[in-house]
C-alpha cells in the first residue's frame, strides 16, 4: 500500500462551475486532499 501525504488546497474561485470542475478533477486524482473553496 502506498504511503500518501495529505495535501490541503485553498481554491479561490468566483465561478461555481469551475470550482465544481476542480472538485471532480481532484477527486479522480491520486493525491489525498482537503479542498477549501472561497469565492472572490
Structure description:
It is built from one helix and two strands. The protein is α+β, with helices and mostly antiparallel strands and 40 residues long. It has one domain. Strands 1-2 form a two-stranded parallel sheet. The longest helix has 13 residues, at 16-28. The N and C termini lie far apart (39 Å). The model has no long low-confidence stretch (mean pLDDT 89).
List keywords for this structure.
32% helix, two-stranded parallel sheet, elongated, single chain, 35% strand, 40 residues, 1 helix, alpha+beta
What's the layout of helices and strands?
Layout: E1 6-12, H1 16-28, E2 32-38
Question: Could you write a compact summary of the structure shown?
Answer:
With 40 residues, this protein is of the alpha+beta class.
Large-scale geometry: elongated
Euclidean distance between termini CA atoms = 39 Å
* Largest sheet, strands/sense/barrel: 2 strands, parallel
Poorly predicted spans: none
Order of helices and strands: EHE
Strand order of the largest sheet: 1-2
Mean pLDDT: 89
Helix content: 25-40%
